[in-house]
Structures
1.
Amino acid sequence: MEIQRYKLTIAYRGTAYHGWQKQLPNKYYKGPAPTGGLEGIPTVQETLAVAIQAVVKHQVNLVGSSRTDTGVHAKGQVAHFDTHMTQIPLIGLQRAINSRLPADIDVRRIEPVPPTFDAISSTASKRYQYFLWNDRRKPVYFSDLAWHWWHRLDVDAMKDAAARFVGTHDFASFAKSGHGRESTVRTVYACDISYRPPRFVFGVEGSGFLWNMVRIMVGTLVQVGMGTYEPEEITRMLESKDRTAAGHTAPAHGLFLQWIKFKPADVADAPQGDQN
Amino acid sequence: MEIQRYKLTIAYRGTAYHGWQKQLPNKYYKGPAPTGGLEGIPTVQETLAVAIQAVVKHQVNLVGSSRTDTGVHAKGQVAHFDTHMTQIPLIGLQRAINSRLPADIDVRRIEPVPPTFDAISSTASKRYQYFLWNDRRKPVYFSDLAWHWWHRLDVDAMKDAAARFVGTHDFASFAKSGHGRESTVRTVYACDISYRPPRFVFGVEGSGFLWNMVRIMVGTLVQVGMGTYEPEEITRMLESKDRTAAGHTAPAHGLFLQWIKFKPADVADAPQGDQN
């Protein structure tokens, strides 16, 4: 019986979900269980798995590339699962799954991939976007999709500071404790800021990210814009390897997982059969 | 003690509210109490009144121009209230109220008006907008702000039909029973459709509107676009004065109250004093 692995590209609005997946406290985690008080609120992964299982008629192990936190959104989350139900045409499979999903989750793409593909270990780079609404007027219609922060910001200083994140650094100062990663060294390929008043969009592309890394980077950049820190201080913050040396953590609801790139070798040679 | 009347222009996202105001069943209303099952869900009017009262330090009677239904949004709802707390500068009053409101309600403007101004009886005309997302892909990030309807639509036929609503007609066929109005004759000044794929925006401007009038007009226009009705049938529907002669009611969440115009005489001569 042929088993086929499928790669899903998913868009969702995280507002109504307890993140992609319940965060399991690990040995490094000091705080309360992240699920505290949120029992009963579904995760995107659970909701999506239920829809897939209703279509393929068997349990699936749905593995997501990024564990987005509660309230965080995605334009291009990626996940994989295996099934022997390979006789379902791809487009039919996608529509059947989407018809069983709520309005705030949509499978944008579904592709067969070789068993070498793994949504987590095959990841080459990711890009996040963070939206900030810098106006006195509230973003009434998208209050859950952008951080509303009204204070005059020095854009040039922010861009100067943002550039200092680019490169391979130890991002320990920009990680929430309990991230549970052995190494806190990451490579940031790009950290850009676009400003079309009153909207700021921060873009951060990197090899991988630590827990709350983008949100702490954005919170710190906003404090640079307010004059709390000088752009030069970013370097010192990185060197200190101490969370208290960096700035505040920006709220979750302004964050979007934009896209994920994978190692070409792992996605190559996808069997083209009766899936198409 | 000087009493001053204030006119508020308000924007809100109706998703989390039980409409502007709880609809009181009237002698014409046949169905279940509209509040059925929704007790505990706040209305926009209640939420706004609480914020105003916290600022002016006394009970206020907040009168809104349009009783938008549950899930309906507003860019320019208008309401009025009276207070003797005229020593509060206008801008301070607005900011104090907004700081006490949730992220999905924002007072866009506050102006002193003469006691002749009444948010309901001074209304000259109103314009509603209805947003339709005509694509297979779901509007994941604004699923509560547009009707997601995927079916090829004949735009020309819809525009032809829309034009037939313009003028003074008896809109009994386009009113939900229980509207409780003596007369169902209304004047529609404009009924336009803009289409920038995949987004349709219906705009309806009129002297006044019956319960669900815009939503039934939009639902019927979409059925014209699908070929269920010919554009010419709009005239027959109006003449029949029978709700069953018209089409479906479009869902509430695509509807926005865009703006309200008032009789110039009623808003004139606003006292310009220490309010400014």
2.
Amino acid sequence: MVDVAARFAEIVGADRLLTGERVSEDYAHDESLTCEPRKPAYVAKPATAEEVSALLVAAAEHSVPVTARGSGSGLSGAARPREDGLLISFERMNAVLEIDTGNQVAVVQPGVTLAELDERTAAAGLAYTVYPGELSASVGGTVGTNAGGMRAVKYGVTRHNVLGLQAVLPTGEIIRTGGKTSKISTGYDLTQLIIGSEGTLALATEIIVKLHPRLPHAATVLAPFGDLTQVMEAVPRILASGLTPNILEYIDNLTMAAITYNEKLSLGVPDSVRDAAQAYLVVGLENRDADRLEGDVERTGELLGELGAADVYVLEGGSARKLIEAREKAFWTAKAAGADDVIDVVVPRTEMPGFLAKVRELATAAEAGAVGCGHAGDGNVHLGIFCKDNEKRQRLLHDIFAAGMACGGAISGEHGIGTAKLSHFLDLEDPAKVALMRRLKQAFDPTDTLNPGVLFG
Amino acid sequence: MVDVAARFAEIVGADRLLTGERVSEDYAHDESLTCEPRKPAYVAKPATAEEVSALLVAAAEHSVPVTARGSGSGLSGAARPREDGLLISFERMNAVLEIDTGNQVAVVQPGVTLAELDERTAAAGLAYTVYPGELSASVGGTVGTNAGGMRAVKYGVTRHNVLGLQAVLPTGEIIRTGGKTSKISTGYDLTQLIIGSEGTLALATEIIVKLHPRLPHAATVLAPFGDLTQVMEAVPRILASGLTPNILEYIDNLTMAAITYNEKLSLGVPDSVRDAAQAYLVVGLENRDADRLEGDVERTGELLGELGAADVYVLEGGSARKLIEAREKAFWTAKAAGADDVIDVVVPRTEMPGFLAKVRELATAAEAGAVGCGHAGDGNVHLGIFCKDNEKRQRLLHDIFAAGMACGGAISGEHGIGTAKLSHFLDLEDPAKVALMRRLKQAFDPTDTLNPGVLFG
Ligand SMILES: Cc1cc2nc3c(=O)[nH]c(=O)nc-3n(C[C@H](O)[C@H](O)[C@H](O)COP(=O)(O)OP(=O)(O)OC[C@H]3O[C@@H](n4cnc5c(N)ncnc54)[C@H](O)[C@@H]3O)c2cc1C
Ligand SMILES: Cc1cc2nc3c(=O)[nH]c(=O)nc-3n(C[C@H](O)[C@H](O)[C@H](O)COP(=O)(O)OP(=O)(O)OC[C@H]3O[C@@H](n4cnc5c(N)ncnc54)[C@H](O)[C@@H]3O)c2cc1C
């Protein structure tokens, strides 16, 4: 114990290694609603890839499990350390190394937050389009979870926007994968394998992300519908129209009531319409040209009308921003309302109506609540689960996940498995795939140093 | 020998197993210019995933190496079988299983050609946007190589457009990865790992691809430049403008002369402009709206003028199509002109001028020719190499690949390593990465049954 702490301290500097009382509560958890906090034995704050490498080698030698932490905003317990473990916090590796306008990429250290990257890219007229609800998330953490967010419907998720990595293998080797190009056919794609691996395969110490021109004109259209199925059926039609919305979210009436109440938001929807609405569709549009945007807004309004919207509201800049922000905070709203878990099953978008009907049925049978909103364009349904009894809730979750998979979907669209959904993953996933994933884990991490207990138990 | 042939025949049916004289020359090679044809001992034509699985199990038991073949249009020798090996040809697994307009995906068997998929998606108003020069390529083969093509600048390469697979592991297990959704964070991304693995990890027996609305209005703009560096410098500026071209190709003057001569193509470029042109930029634009397209064409013309184009030509439909087709056939033109190899180094797009200057220098020193064209928007430079002496040519290739890598690029952008570039890959790639890739290969294929000799030698 003492030995290995001294070794870690030697690597990062004594003031960058926390143990015992100096480890604050914050490092004990992420934002998962169901994972008990666990304080790690050590927290190290490296400044370079070489330090990360030396930490991993030392940890492997002493059989100390290692968990990486970005901002701890994850929702699956994957950044929650082990009690006997080392937490590597990337908070000091937080430099934007380069905004390369010619190649439209940024090169960043893993601890850079999305908020900071947004600010820095804005100054160059560019944008990083991975935009999960929580902008305090770190770029390294989004690599860990393959984060999505609202703009994925147009720009894809983290996987589609990370072009290359510097990564440290559990064996201590520092490799570079990919590059400032969006195509490479030269051996296996290690970048893609590391993305979404929840800190179990390698630690990203530098990340090359793709940027897009920041389009100057944007609008938000809100449409209440009398019926959730109608909303769901509208989604494929909007995407088939060629309109390319950058936001396409659904919000059910209970969630809308909660978030507008919480945020004191007035959207100009008359009481009569609101009372009849079962769900809302939020459509974001953007363009480099104001006239074209106006044309798209008009076309969207017509289309929503044809698809059965009770009415269509083009929101003013201020209230549009507030609605989007409120939607981003839906997780906090659910938490405040007493949700016992929040999940994010993904299904083919045409399966959403059937899947949600099944969820309602299962929740009713379990005397539980399941309400939410979601990235409708991606078939990614976020549900707040209200069910105090843990055993009952686990059974319900099992059935909901199984229903999603039966529709051709998966347990998580963007939050990951972590430890929160581990037992369901191992229970429901094809054993041949889990066995193959274990062999891949072994190929990267023969000593099982990185995040043991996550993904495989 | 006899035993295993009987076993293969039992699996696929006697008339679907070819041996000896019945194996035609066609199965002995792909389109690589440097790989000697090699007739396989066996060719099997399975009809189902179960048959593929049984073939792999039998082959592993008898230590028969297995190579998958789509259409054999690959350029790296990766579909070239071993003399003692089994070639699994997917020619009978060629059904389009589903065009799902709601989810905008197609589900296809691996032997479906891109030409057929294009026809089938067109009928539904949709398009599969992976569009390499050779439309006889199979979807399975494009998964094998992570094929790109001209439209990658807007829509990405195969990797960005394949959402899921049914795949047979070398151990015989049949798994399903991904699905009809574009985001999943549920374990490692096996889809992405298999894509681009050149038939060394698993065989795809079903492929879910993403479709896009087929935009009805398209235009092609051609701009001659006095200087290749100017062309290269124009590329990032066009992409930064927000114009989102779906084609952005450069063609050097020698290549343009050859392809226009070969295809008897007249583009309306006056002799004086043509004589002064060192290179051309081809910009493709498309839109769902004719007026918007016109606006974009105009803006593109202005921009090209500002960027130093000698002139700008908006090509008529017929000659635009012919030019694109001629560009697609540039490989055949190079081959007919006596090229000794064709390579496709990828570099960050801002590095193209420097890289091409270095290539000229290296080629001159080696008394060799290196001319070409390329997917300029992606930094993917296709070069015909003219150098008869094999040893000298290998030295030149080594230096060109090293120069590309020194610019932050990679040996191949879309053709792959196969056996053609194997020695250079093993020579130049980071040994830690190659060792990791070998361990991944081992995790999938413990008996080294799938395409031994490709990627690892
Ligand atoms: C209010 C709220 C809204 C949210 N909305 C969304 C949303 O819309 N979409 C979405 O996808 N997510 C959303 N999330 C979840 C969360 O923001 C994302 O999961 C994000 O990716 C976590 O980033 P982080 O830096 O906080 O990572 P952490 O929680 O610190 O870590 C996440 C995982 O990444 C690993 N990791 C961290 N750093 C590295 C590294 N350098 N290399 C390798 N692995 C590393 C960790 O070990 C862990 O497995 C939301 C969360 C909240 C609280
Ligand atoms: C004139 C010409 C122009 C070209 N232009 C381009 C271009 O612009 N962009 C580009 O990217 N390529 C281009 N190519 C190369 C070629 O078309 C692509 O590499 C294509 O992906 C090969 O498809 P195929 O079906 O012919 O594959 P094959 O050559 O048969 O096989 C290619 C690889 O895939 C593997 N494979 C085949 N089927 C499967 C399966 N079901 N599961 C797993 N692995 C499998 C094979 O083992 C092999 O490793 C061009 C080729 C020619 C001749």
